[in-house]
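Notes from the pairing session

We agreed to fold both candidates in a single pass and log them together. This is the raw record for the first candidate, unedited. Please don't reformat it; downstream parsing expects exactly this layout.

Candidate A
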Amino acid sequence: MLFAFTFLIGIISPVSGVGGGVLFVPIATLIFPFHIDFIRGAGLVMAVTSALSSVPFLIKKGLANIKLFAVLAPVMIITSVIGSILGLQITNAFPGGKYYIELMLGVIILMVFTVMMMAKKLEFPNVEEKEMDSWSKKLKIKGAWFEPSLNRLVKYNVKNLPISLAVFAVVGLIAGMFGLGAGFANVPVLNLLMGMPIKVATATSMLIITANSPAIGIYLTKGAILPSIVVPAILGITIGARIGAKVAEIIKPVFVRWIVLGVLLFAGFMNVLKGLEGLGILPHIFGG
Protein backbone atom coordinates (compact mmCIF):
# COMPACT_ATOMS: atom_id res chain seq x y z
CA MET A 1 0.00 0.00 0.00
CA LEU A 2 2.84 2.38 0.84
CA PHE A 3 4.60 1.51 -2.43
CA ALA A 4 1.46 2.19 -4.52
CA PHE A 5 0.80 5.43 -2.65
CA THR A 6 4.32 6.77 -3.21
CA PHE A 7 4.32 5.60 -6.85
CA LEU A 8 1.40 7.95 -7.57
CA ILE A 9 3.12 10.78 -5.71
CA GLY A 10 6.24 10.15 -7.78
CA ILE A 11 4.33 10.73 -11.02
CA ILE A 12 2.85 13.99 -9.72
CA SER A 13 6.12 15.38 -8.32
CA PRO A 14 8.08 16.31 -11.49
CA VAL A 15 4.93 17.66 -13.15
CA SER A 16 4.05 19.95 -10.24
CA GLY A 17 7.60 20.55 -8.98
CA VAL A 18 6.65 19.88 -5.35
CA GLY A 19 9.05 17.04 -4.59
CA GLY A 20 6.58 14.55 -3.13
CA GLY A 21 7.02 15.22 0.58
CA VAL A 22 4.33 17.89 0.66
CA LEU A 23 1.74 15.27 -0.31
CA PHE A 24 3.25 12.34 1.55
CA VAL A 25 3.51 13.97 4.99
CA PRO A 26 -0.11 15.16 5.45
CA ILE A 27 -1.76 12.15 3.80
CA ALA A 28 0.48 9.54 5.42
CA THR A 29 -0.45 10.87 8.86
CA LEU A 30 -4.06 10.01 8.00
CA ILE A 31 -3.74 6.55 6.51
CA PHE A 32 -0.59 5.08 8.11
CA PRO A 33 0.04 4.41 11.84
CA PHE A 34 3.43 6.13 11.97
CA HIS A 35 4.68 8.85 14.31
CA ILE A 36 5.04 12.29 12.72
CA ASP A 37 8.84 12.24 13.13
CA PHE A 38 9.13 9.03 11.07
CA ILE A 39 6.80 10.48 8.45
CA ARG A 40 8.78 13.72 8.21
CA GLY A 41 12.05 11.81 7.95
CA ALA A 42 10.66 9.62 5.18
CA GLY A 43 9.07 12.64 3.51
CA LEU A 44 12.39 14.44 3.25
CA VAL A 45 14.10 11.33 1.86
CA MET A 46 11.26 10.93 -0.66
CA ALA A 47 11.44 14.56 -1.75
CA VAL A 48 15.17 14.34 -2.45
CA THR A 49 14.83 10.91 -4.08
CA SER A 50 12.06 12.00 -6.45
CA ALA A 51 14.14 15.03 -7.39
CA LEU A 52 17.27 12.97 -8.05
CA SER A 53 15.22 10.53 -10.16
CA SER A 54 13.80 13.18 -12.47
CA VAL A 55 16.48 15.90 -12.52
CA PRO A 56 18.88 14.25 -15.04
CA PHE A 57 16.10 14.04 -17.61
CA LEU A 58 14.96 17.63 -16.92
CA ILE A 59 18.52 18.95 -17.22
CA LYS A 60 19.01 17.09 -20.49
CA LYS A 61 15.90 18.79 -21.90
CA GLY A 62 17.16 22.22 -20.82
CA LEU A 63 14.33 22.81 -18.36
CA ALA A 64 16.28 22.86 -15.05
CA ASN A 65 18.60 25.87 -14.65
CA ILE A 66 21.94 24.64 -13.23
CA LYS A 67 23.49 28.10 -12.83
CA LEU A 68 20.67 29.29 -10.59
CA PHE A 69 20.89 26.10 -8.55
CA ALA A 70 24.61 26.67 -7.97
CA VAL A 71 23.82 30.08 -6.45
CA LEU A 72 20.89 28.94 -4.29
CA ALA A 73 22.23 25.57 -3.09
CA PRO A 74 24.65 26.81 -0.38
CA VAL A 75 21.92 28.92 1.23
CA MET A 76 19.38 26.09 1.11
CA ILE A 77 21.82 23.56 2.58
CA ILE A 78 22.61 25.69 5.64
CA THR A 79 19.04 26.71 6.44
CA SER A 80 17.50 23.27 5.82
CA VAL A 81 19.89 21.72 8.36
CA ILE A 82 18.97 24.41 10.89
CA GLY A 83 15.27 23.84 10.18
CA SER A 84 15.51 20.08 10.69
CA ILE A 85 17.08 20.60 14.12
CA LEU A 86 14.37 23.10 15.12
CA GLY A 87 11.56 20.88 13.81
CA LEU A 88 12.60 17.84 15.85
CA GLN A 89 13.02 19.98 18.96
CA ILE A 90 9.53 21.48 18.62
CA THR A 91 7.96 18.04 18.19
CA ASN A 92 9.47 16.68 21.39
CA ALA A 93 9.74 19.84 23.52
CA PHE A 94 6.14 19.92 24.76
CA PRO A 95 2.84 17.97 24.48
CA GLY A 96 1.07 18.53 21.17
CA GLY A 97 4.23 19.77 19.48
CA LYS A 98 3.66 17.66 16.39
CA TYR A 99 0.18 19.14 15.92
CA TYR A 100 1.55 22.67 15.98
CA ILE A 101 4.00 21.59 13.29
CA GLU A 102 1.16 20.26 11.12
CA LEU A 103 -0.96 23.38 11.67
CA MET A 104 1.90 25.77 10.83
CA LEU A 105 2.73 23.82 7.70
CA GLY A 106 -0.88 23.87 6.51
CA VAL A 107 -1.17 27.62 7.03
CA ILE A 108 2.06 28.26 5.10
CA ILE A 109 0.95 26.08 2.19
CA LEU A 110 -2.48 27.77 1.99
CA MET A 111 -0.80 31.18 2.01
CA VAL A 112 1.34 30.16 -0.94
CA PHE A 113 -1.75 28.77 -2.70
CA THR A 114 -3.58 32.09 -2.21
CA VAL A 115 -0.68 34.09 -3.65
CA MET A 116 -0.47 31.88 -6.74
CA MET A 117 -4.24 31.79 -7.22
CA MET A 118 -4.55 35.58 -7.13
CA ALA A 119 -1.53 36.19 -9.31
CA LYS A 120 -1.89 36.46 -13.06
CA LYS A 121 -0.96 33.45 -15.13
CA LEU A 122 2.76 33.37 -15.86
CA GLU A 123 3.18 30.38 -18.14
CA PHE A 124 5.63 32.34 -20.32
CA PRO A 125 6.61 35.56 -18.47
CA ASN A 126 8.65 38.00 -20.52
CA VAL A 127 11.56 39.32 -18.45
CA GLU A 128 13.47 41.77 -20.64
CA GLU A 129 17.23 42.30 -20.42
CA LYS A 130 16.79 45.67 -18.71
CA GLU A 131 14.66 44.09 -15.96
CA MET A 132 17.43 41.69 -14.93
CA ASP A 133 19.22 42.59 -11.69
CA SER A 134 22.99 43.13 -11.68
CA TRP A 135 23.69 39.76 -10.03
CA SER A 136 21.74 37.83 -12.65
CA LYS A 137 23.47 39.74 -15.44
CA LYS A 138 26.97 39.14 -14.08
CA LEU A 139 26.29 35.44 -13.48
CA LYS A 140 24.46 35.17 -16.83
CA ILE A 141 21.53 33.32 -15.30
CA LYS A 142 19.25 32.79 -18.27
CA GLY A 143 18.22 29.86 -20.40
CA ALA A 144 16.24 28.36 -23.26
CA TRP A 145 14.36 25.16 -24.02
CA PHE A 146 12.34 23.68 -26.84
CA GLU A 147 8.62 23.90 -26.04
CA PRO A 148 6.65 21.12 -27.83
CA SER A 149 3.28 22.86 -27.35
CA LEU A 150 4.60 25.91 -29.26
CA ASN A 151 6.96 23.96 -31.53
CA ARG A 152 9.73 26.51 -30.99
CA LEU A 153 12.67 27.44 -28.79
CA VAL A 154 11.66 29.62 -25.82
CA LYS A 155 14.27 31.89 -24.20
CA TYR A 156 13.98 33.49 -20.77
CA ASN A 157 15.78 35.77 -18.30
CA VAL A 158 15.45 36.04 -14.52
CA LYS A 159 15.18 38.97 -12.10
CA ASN A 160 15.22 39.77 -8.34
CA LEU A 161 18.04 37.34 -7.50
CA PRO A 162 19.19 39.12 -4.28
CA ILE A 163 15.66 39.16 -2.83
CA SER A 164 15.10 35.59 -3.95
CA LEU A 165 18.20 34.43 -2.06
CA ALA A 166 16.69 35.74 1.18
CA VAL A 167 13.36 34.09 0.41
CA PHE A 168 15.01 30.75 -0.37
CA ALA A 169 16.83 30.92 2.96
CA VAL A 170 13.41 30.88 4.63
CA VAL A 171 12.23 28.15 2.25
CA GLY A 172 15.19 25.97 3.27
CA LEU A 173 14.31 26.49 6.93
CA ILE A 174 10.73 25.37 6.23
CA ALA A 175 11.93 22.36 4.22
CA GLY A 176 14.08 21.04 7.06
CA MET A 177 11.57 21.84 9.78
CA PHE A 178 8.62 20.08 8.15
CA GLY A 179 10.47 17.27 6.37
CA LEU A 180 9.60 18.47 2.88
CA GLY A 181 11.39 19.33 -0.32
CA ALA A 182 9.55 22.70 -0.16
CA GLY A 183 8.77 22.59 -3.88
CA PHE A 184 5.41 24.14 -2.97
CA ALA A 185 7.37 27.33 -2.12
CA ASN A 186 10.10 26.99 -4.76
CA VAL A 187 7.71 27.12 -7.70
CA PRO A 188 5.89 30.39 -6.88
CA VAL A 189 9.17 32.13 -5.96
CA LEU A 190 10.82 31.08 -9.21
CA ASN A 191 7.74 31.84 -11.30
CA LEU A 192 6.23 34.95 -9.69
CA LEU A 193 9.27 36.63 -8.12
CA MET A 194 12.06 35.67 -10.50
CA GLY A 195 9.96 35.58 -13.68
CA MET A 196 10.85 32.06 -14.83
CA PRO A 197 8.37 30.22 -17.11
CA ILE A 198 6.21 27.81 -15.13
CA LYS A 199 7.70 24.68 -16.73
CA VAL A 200 11.23 25.89 -16.04
CA ALA A 201 10.20 26.86 -12.51
CA THR A 202 8.86 23.38 -11.74
CA ALA A 203 11.91 21.67 -13.25
CA THR A 204 14.38 23.95 -11.46
CA SER A 205 12.41 23.42 -8.26
CA MET A 206 13.15 19.71 -8.47
CA LEU A 207 16.86 20.50 -8.83
CA ILE A 208 16.78 22.88 -5.85
CA ILE A 209 15.11 20.22 -3.69
CA THR A 210 18.29 18.12 -3.87
CA ALA A 211 20.01 20.81 -1.78
CA ASN A 212 17.93 19.63 1.19
CA SER A 213 19.70 16.26 1.29
CA PRO A 214 22.10 17.21 4.17
CA ALA A 215 19.05 17.74 6.40
CA ILE A 216 18.35 14.01 6.07
CA GLY A 217 21.45 13.41 8.19
CA ILE A 218 19.84 15.24 11.11
CA TYR A 219 16.75 12.99 10.99
CA LEU A 220 19.02 9.96 10.63
CA THR A 221 21.11 10.78 13.70
CA LYS A 222 17.92 11.33 15.72
CA GLY A 223 16.57 7.89 14.74
CA ALA A 224 13.74 9.33 12.63
CA ILE A 225 14.63 7.41 9.43
CA LEU A 226 12.83 4.06 9.67
CA PRO A 227 13.88 1.57 6.92
CA SER A 228 10.51 -0.23 6.90
CA ILE A 229 8.91 3.07 5.83
CA VAL A 230 11.68 4.60 3.74
CA VAL A 231 12.56 1.59 1.54
CA PRO A 232 9.12 0.95 -0.05
CA ALA A 233 8.55 4.71 -0.24
CA ILE A 234 11.80 5.28 -2.14
CA LEU A 235 11.09 2.43 -4.55
CA GLY A 236 7.62 3.76 -5.31
CA ILE A 237 8.58 7.39 -5.77
CA THR A 238 11.71 6.59 -7.82
CA ILE A 239 9.76 4.60 -10.41
CA GLY A 240 6.92 7.09 -10.45
CA ALA A 241 9.24 10.12 -10.78
CA ARG A 242 10.89 8.69 -13.89
CA ILE A 243 7.48 8.46 -15.53
CA GLY A 244 6.50 11.89 -14.23
CA ALA A 245 9.63 13.53 -15.68
CA LYS A 246 8.61 12.44 -19.19
CA VAL A 247 5.06 13.67 -18.60
CA ALA A 248 6.44 17.04 -17.42
CA GLU A 249 8.21 17.49 -20.76
CA ILE A 250 5.10 17.18 -22.95
CA ILE A 251 2.32 18.55 -20.74
CA LYS A 252 1.01 22.06 -21.51
CA PRO A 253 2.15 24.81 -19.09
CA VAL A 254 -1.41 25.82 -18.19
CA PHE A 255 -2.06 22.28 -16.93
CA VAL A 256 1.12 22.40 -14.87
CA ARG A 257 -0.12 25.55 -13.12
CA TRP A 258 -3.45 23.97 -12.19
CA ILE A 259 -1.75 20.79 -10.98
CA VAL A 260 0.49 22.90 -8.73
CA LEU A 261 -2.53 24.79 -7.36
CA GLY A 262 -4.47 21.58 -6.76
CA VAL A 263 -1.56 19.99 -4.89
CA LEU A 264 -1.14 23.08 -2.71
CA LEU A 265 -4.83 23.37 -1.82
CA PHE A 266 -5.24 19.71 -0.88
CA ALA A 267 -2.00 19.45 1.09
CA GLY A 268 -2.62 22.71 2.95
CA PHE A 269 -6.18 21.78 3.88
CA MET A 270 -5.15 18.34 5.15
CA ASN A 271 -2.36 19.75 7.31
CA VAL A 272 -4.59 22.37 8.90
CA LEU A 273 -7.29 19.78 9.56
CA LYS A 274 -4.88 17.35 11.19
CA GLY A 275 -3.34 20.07 13.32
CA LEU A 276 -6.70 21.32 14.57
CA GLU A 277 -7.87 17.77 15.29
CA GLY A 278 -4.73 16.97 17.24
CA LEU A 279 -5.08 20.11 19.35
CA GLY A 280 -8.68 19.22 20.18
CA ILE A 281 -10.18 22.21 18.32
CA LEU A 282 -11.97 19.92 15.86
CA PRO A 283 -13.42 16.44 16.43
CA HIS A 284 -11.46 13.48 15.04
CA ILE A 285 -13.61 13.09 11.97
CA PHE A 286 -11.04 10.83 10.30
CA GLY A 287 -10.86 8.51 13.26
CA GLY A 288 -7.83 10.14 14.94
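Candidate B (folded immediately after A)
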Amino acid sequence: MPLAPGTRIGHYEVTALLGAGGMGEVYRARDSRLNREVAIKVLSAAFVSDPSRMARFEREAQVLAALNHPNIATIYGLEGNAIAMELVEGKDLAGPLPLEEALPIARQIVEALEAAHEKGIVHRDLKPANIKITPDGVVKLLDFGLATAPDNDAANISMSNSPTMSLAMTQAGMIMGTAGYMSPEQAAGKTVDKRADIWSFGVVMVEMLSGRKLFEGETIAHTLADVLRAEVDLSKLPEPTPPAIRRLIERCLDRNVKDRLRDIGEARIMLRDPAGGTSAFAKATADKARRPLISWGLAAALGIVALIGW
Protein backbone atom coordinates (compact mmCIF):
# COMPACT_ATOMS: atom_id res chain seq x y z
CA MET A 1 0.00 0.00 0.00
CA PRO A 2 1.56 3.31 -1.07
CA LEU A 3 2.14 5.92 1.59
CA ALA A 4 -0.53 8.61 1.79
CA PRO A 5 0.41 12.28 1.29
CA GLY A 6 1.25 13.79 4.67
CA THR A 7 2.98 10.66 5.97
CA ARG A 8 6.15 11.59 7.83
CA ILE A 9 9.43 9.70 7.56
CA GLY A 10 11.71 11.35 10.08
CA HIS A 11 11.71 15.02 9.17
CA TYR A 12 10.51 14.31 5.63
CA GLU A 13 6.83 14.70 4.70
CA VAL A 14 5.57 12.63 1.76
CA THR A 15 3.67 14.65 -0.84
CA ALA A 16 3.27 12.30 -3.84
CA LEU A 17 4.19 8.89 -5.24
CA LEU A 18 6.74 9.14 -8.06
CA GLY A 19 7.16 5.48 -8.96
CA ALA A 20 7.66 1.91 -7.77
CA GLY A 21 10.20 -0.82 -8.47
CA GLY A 22 11.42 -4.17 -7.27
CA MET A 23 12.80 -2.82 -3.99
CA GLY A 24 10.06 -0.37 -3.07
CA GLU A 25 8.52 2.98 -3.90
CA VAL A 26 9.94 6.43 -4.61
CA TYR A 27 8.10 9.48 -3.29
CA ARG A 28 8.33 13.21 -3.59
CA ALA A 29 8.72 14.68 -0.11
CA ARG A 30 9.55 17.91 1.70
CA ASP A 31 12.49 18.27 4.03
CA SER A 32 11.02 20.23 6.95
CA ARG A 33 14.45 21.13 8.34
CA LEU A 34 15.96 22.59 5.18
CA ASN A 35 12.68 23.44 3.43
CA ARG A 36 13.50 21.71 0.16
CA GLU A 37 11.94 19.11 -2.10
CA VAL A 38 13.56 15.68 -2.06
CA ALA A 39 12.99 12.16 -3.37
CA ILE A 40 12.50 9.41 -0.80
CA LYS A 41 13.15 5.77 -1.74
CA VAL A 42 11.30 3.54 0.70
CA LEU A 43 12.05 -0.17 1.01
CA SER A 44 8.90 -2.29 0.70
CA ALA A 45 7.56 -4.08 3.78
CA ALA A 46 8.47 -7.47 2.31
CA PHE A 47 12.15 -6.49 2.40
CA VAL A 48 12.31 -4.79 5.79
CA SER A 49 12.30 -8.00 7.83
CA ASP A 50 15.14 -9.52 5.77
CA PRO A 51 18.56 -8.60 7.24
CA SER A 52 20.45 -9.33 4.01
CA ARG A 53 18.17 -7.08 1.99
CA MET A 54 18.41 -4.32 4.57
CA ALA A 55 22.18 -4.64 4.44
CA ARG A 56 22.03 -4.25 0.66
CA PHE A 57 19.85 -1.16 1.09
CA GLU A 58 22.45 0.39 3.41
CA ARG A 59 25.24 -0.48 1.00
CA GLU A 60 23.32 1.29 -1.78
CA ALA A 61 23.21 4.39 0.40
CA GLN A 62 26.95 4.16 1.02
CA VAL A 63 27.64 3.77 -2.69
CA LEU A 64 25.53 6.79 -3.55
CA ALA A 65 27.11 8.87 -0.79
CA ALA A 66 30.54 8.20 -2.30
CA LEU A 67 29.51 9.70 -5.66
CA ASN A 68 29.75 13.47 -5.42
CA HIS A 69 29.41 14.67 -8.99
CA PRO A 70 27.18 17.25 -10.72
CA ASN A 71 25.88 14.61 -13.14
CA ILE A 72 24.96 12.05 -10.44
CA ALA A 73 21.92 12.40 -8.19
CA THR A 74 23.06 13.24 -4.65
CA ILE A 75 22.10 11.32 -1.52
CA TYR A 76 21.08 13.37 1.52
CA GLY A 77 20.74 10.73 4.20
CA LEU A 78 19.14 7.58 5.64
CA GLU A 79 15.91 7.46 7.61
CA GLY A 80 15.26 3.90 8.80
CA ASN A 81 14.21 1.97 5.71
CA ALA A 82 14.32 5.03 3.44
CA ILE A 83 16.96 6.96 1.51
CA ALA A 84 16.51 10.69 0.99
CA MET A 85 18.10 11.93 -2.20
CA GLU A 86 18.15 14.76 -4.67
CA LEU A 87 14.84 15.27 -6.45
CA VAL A 88 15.71 15.58 -10.12
CA GLU A 89 13.13 17.53 -12.08
CA GLY A 90 13.06 16.85 -15.78
CA LYS A 91 12.40 14.11 -18.31
CA ASP A 92 13.92 10.73 -19.03
CA LEU A 93 16.38 10.57 -21.90
CA ALA A 94 14.57 9.82 -25.16
CA GLY A 95 15.49 9.89 -28.84
CA PRO A 96 15.83 10.58 -31.60
CA LEU A 97 17.86 13.68 -30.87
CA PRO A 98 19.81 15.77 -33.37
CA LEU A 99 23.55 15.39 -33.05
CA GLU A 100 24.03 18.88 -31.62
CA GLU A 101 21.70 17.95 -28.71
CA ALA A 102 22.84 14.35 -28.29
CA LEU A 103 26.58 15.03 -27.98
CA PRO A 104 26.43 17.33 -24.93
CA ILE A 105 24.24 14.72 -23.22
CA ALA A 106 26.67 11.94 -24.17
CA ARG A 107 29.60 13.92 -22.77
CA GLN A 108 27.83 14.41 -19.43
CA ILE A 109 26.92 10.71 -19.20
CA VAL A 110 30.56 9.83 -19.88
CA GLU A 111 31.82 12.27 -17.24
CA ALA A 112 29.44 10.81 -14.64
CA LEU A 113 30.48 7.24 -15.43
CA GLU A 114 34.14 8.21 -15.38
CA ALA A 115 33.73 9.69 -11.88
CA ALA A 116 32.00 6.51 -10.69
CA HIS A 117 34.56 4.20 -12.28
CA GLU A 118 37.40 6.15 -10.67
CA LYS A 119 35.89 5.17 -7.31
CA GLY A 120 35.61 1.54 -8.39
CA ILE A 121 31.83 1.78 -8.84
CA VAL A 122 30.10 0.23 -11.86
CA HIS A 123 26.51 1.31 -12.51
CA ARG A 124 25.46 -1.97 -14.22
CA ASP A 125 21.99 -0.66 -15.15
CA LEU A 126 22.62 2.30 -17.43
CA LYS A 127 19.52 2.94 -19.54
CA PRO A 128 17.40 5.92 -20.65
CA ALA A 129 15.03 5.50 -17.68
CA ASN A 130 17.99 6.06 -15.33
CA ILE A 131 19.16 9.19 -17.17
CA LYS A 132 17.28 12.41 -16.38
CA ILE A 133 17.64 15.64 -18.34
CA THR A 134 16.81 18.75 -16.30
CA PRO A 135 15.12 21.78 -17.91
CA ASP A 136 18.57 23.42 -17.96
CA GLY A 137 20.01 20.53 -19.98
CA VAL A 138 21.96 19.00 -17.10
CA VAL A 139 22.24 15.20 -17.14
CA LYS A 140 21.68 13.30 -13.90
CA LEU A 141 22.38 9.57 -13.59
CA LEU A 142 20.00 7.83 -11.21
CA ASP A 143 19.76 4.50 -9.41
CA PHE A 144 23.18 3.13 -8.63
CA GLY A 145 21.35 0.46 -6.60
CA LEU A 146 22.87 -2.35 -8.66
CA ALA A 147 26.35 -1.06 -7.92
CA THR A 148 26.39 -2.48 -4.39
CA ALA A 149 28.03 -5.63 -3.10
CA PRO A 150 26.49 -9.07 -3.85
CA ASP A 151 23.40 -10.45 -2.30
CA ASN A 152 22.27 -13.90 -3.29
CA ASP A 153 18.54 -13.38 -2.97
CA ALA A 154 16.71 -13.91 -6.25
CA ALA A 155 13.21 -14.01 -4.82
CA ASN A 156 10.30 -11.75 -5.70
CA ILE A 157 11.97 -10.18 -8.76
CA SER A 158 9.47 -8.82 -11.27
CA MET A 159 10.36 -10.00 -14.78
CA SER A 160 7.89 -7.95 -16.85
CA ASN A 161 8.57 -5.12 -19.29
CA SER A 162 12.28 -5.87 -19.70
CA PRO A 163 12.81 -5.12 -16.02
CA THR A 164 15.79 -4.62 -13.86
CA MET A 165 16.92 -8.09 -12.86
CA SER A 166 19.08 -7.97 -9.74
CA LEU A 167 19.54 -11.62 -8.90
CA ALA A 168 23.05 -10.85 -7.67
CA MET A 169 25.77 -8.31 -8.24
CA THR A 170 29.00 -9.62 -9.77
CA GLN A 171 28.86 -13.34 -9.12
CA ALA A 172 29.22 -15.70 -12.06
CA GLY A 173 26.04 -17.56 -12.95
CA MET A 174 23.75 -14.69 -11.96
CA ILE A 175 22.01 -12.07 -14.09
CA MET A 176 21.49 -8.43 -13.25
CA GLY A 177 20.61 -5.34 -15.25
CA THR A 178 17.90 -4.48 -17.76
CA ALA A 179 17.64 -6.97 -20.60
CA GLY A 180 17.95 -4.67 -23.62
CA TYR A 181 20.82 -2.64 -22.18
CA MET A 182 22.93 -5.17 -20.33
CA SER A 183 26.27 -6.30 -21.71
CA PRO A 184 26.75 -9.80 -23.17
CA GLU A 185 28.78 -10.83 -20.13
CA GLN A 186 25.91 -9.70 -17.87
CA ALA A 187 23.39 -11.58 -20.01
CA ALA A 188 25.56 -14.69 -19.73
CA GLY A 189 25.75 -14.36 -15.94
CA LYS A 190 29.50 -13.73 -15.95
CA THR A 191 31.51 -11.46 -13.70
CA VAL A 192 31.43 -7.88 -14.96
CA ASP A 193 33.58 -4.77 -14.64
CA LYS A 194 33.39 -1.18 -15.85
CA ARG A 195 33.35 -2.35 -19.48
CA ALA A 196 29.73 -3.46 -18.91
CA ASP A 197 28.83 0.22 -18.48
CA ILE A 198 30.74 1.02 -21.67
CA TRP A 199 28.59 -1.48 -23.61
CA SER A 200 25.41 0.02 -22.12
CA PHE A 201 26.60 3.50 -23.04
CA GLY A 202 26.96 2.34 -26.67
CA VAL A 203 23.40 0.94 -26.62
CA VAL A 204 22.09 4.20 -25.15
CA MET A 205 23.96 6.20 -27.81
CA VAL A 206 22.30 4.24 -30.62
CA GLU A 207 18.84 4.77 -29.11
CA MET A 208 19.51 8.44 -28.38
CA LEU A 209 20.51 9.15 -31.99
CA SER A 210 18.01 6.87 -33.74
CA GLY A 211 15.02 6.77 -31.39
CA ARG A 212 15.00 2.97 -31.80
CA LYS A 213 16.01 0.29 -29.32
CA LEU A 214 19.05 -1.70 -30.38
CA PHE A 215 17.88 -4.95 -28.72
CA GLU A 216 14.16 -5.57 -28.32
CA GLY A 217 12.69 -9.08 -28.44
CA GLU A 218 9.22 -10.51 -28.05
CA THR A 219 10.16 -11.76 -24.58
CA ILE A 220 13.04 -11.16 -22.17
CA ALA A 221 14.56 -14.47 -23.28
CA HIS A 222 14.50 -13.32 -26.91
CA THR A 223 16.07 -9.99 -25.94
CA LEU A 224 18.84 -11.69 -23.97
CA ALA A 225 19.49 -14.05 -26.91
CA ASP A 226 19.86 -11.02 -29.20
CA VAL A 227 22.25 -9.35 -26.76
CA LEU A 228 24.35 -12.51 -26.76
CA ARG A 229 24.36 -13.37 -30.46
CA ALA A 230 22.44 -11.04 -32.80
CA GLU A 231 24.37 -8.80 -35.17
CA VAL A 232 24.88 -5.32 -33.76
CA ASP A 233 22.84 -3.39 -36.31
CA LEU A 234 24.24 0.13 -36.62
CA SER A 235 22.15 0.77 -39.72
CA LYS A 236 19.67 2.24 -37.23
CA LEU A 237 21.99 5.22 -36.84
CA PRO A 238 20.80 8.22 -38.84
CA GLU A 239 22.74 9.51 -41.81
CA PRO A 240 25.06 11.25 -41.72
CA THR A 241 26.45 10.14 -38.34
CA PRO A 242 30.06 11.35 -38.10
CA PRO A 243 32.65 8.59 -38.64
CA ALA A 244 34.20 9.32 -35.23
CA ILE A 245 30.86 8.69 -33.50
CA ARG A 246 30.33 5.45 -35.44
CA ARG A 247 33.81 4.30 -34.46
CA LEU A 248 33.13 5.13 -30.81
CA ILE A 249 29.86 3.16 -30.81
CA GLU A 250 31.51 0.22 -32.57
CA ARG A 251 34.27 0.16 -29.95
CA CYS A 252 31.68 0.28 -27.15
CA LEU A 253 29.63 -2.54 -28.68
CA ASP A 254 32.38 -5.09 -29.21
CA ARG A 255 31.21 -8.35 -27.61
CA ASN A 256 34.79 -9.31 -26.87
CA VAL A 257 35.50 -7.38 -23.67
CA LYS A 258 39.23 -7.48 -24.43
CA ASP A 259 38.63 -5.54 -27.66
CA ARG A 260 35.96 -3.24 -26.27
CA LEU A 261 36.79 0.34 -25.35
CA ARG A 262 38.74 -0.20 -22.13
CA ASP A 263 38.00 3.05 -20.32
CA ILE A 264 35.07 5.44 -20.53
CA GLY A 265 37.58 8.28 -20.36
CA GLU A 266 38.62 7.31 -23.90
CA ALA A 267 35.04 8.04 -25.00
CA ARG A 268 35.33 11.51 -23.47
CA ILE A 269 38.45 12.11 -25.59
CA MET A 270 36.85 10.70 -28.76
CA LEU A 271 33.79 12.94 -28.30
CA ARG A 272 35.95 16.08 -28.45
CA ASP A 273 36.17 15.91 -32.25
CA PRO A 274 32.95 14.18 -33.37
CA ALA A 275 32.75 15.81 -36.79
CA GLY A 276 36.36 15.27 -37.80
CA GLY A 277 37.58 12.35 -39.82
CA THR A 278 39.99 11.50 -37.03
CA SER A 279 39.23 11.96 -33.35
CA ALA A 280 41.73 13.28 -30.84
CA PHE A 281 42.07 9.74 -29.50
CA ALA A 282 42.76 8.34 -32.96
CA LYS A 283 45.29 11.11 -33.66
CA ALA A 284 47.09 10.37 -30.41
CA THR A 285 47.14 6.66 -31.26
CA ALA A 286 48.44 7.36 -34.77
CA ASP A 287 51.15 9.68 -33.43
CA LYS A 288 52.23 7.02 -30.97
CA ALA A 289 52.40 4.44 -33.76
CA ARG A 290 54.47 6.79 -35.97
CA ARG A 291 57.13 7.51 -33.34
CA PRO A 292 59.05 4.22 -33.85
CA LEU A 293 58.96 4.75 -37.62
CA ILE A 294 60.38 8.27 -37.24
CA SER A 295 63.12 6.96 -34.96
CA TRP A 296 64.07 4.19 -37.39
CA GLY A 297 63.99 6.63 -40.31
CA LEU A 298 66.30 9.05 -38.50
CA ALA A 299 68.69 6.24 -37.59
CA ALA A 300 68.77 5.05 -41.22
CA ALA A 301 69.48 8.57 -42.49
CA LEU A 302 72.36 9.02 -40.05
CA GLY A 303 73.73 5.63 -41.12
CA ILE A 304 73.70 6.64 -44.79
CA VAL A 305 75.46 9.94 -44.01
CA ALA A 306 78.12 8.06 -42.02
CA LEU A 307 78.60 5.58 -44.87
CA ILE A 308 79.04 8.33 -47.45
CA GLY A 309 81.56 10.11 -45.19
CA TRP A 310 83.52 6.86 -44.83
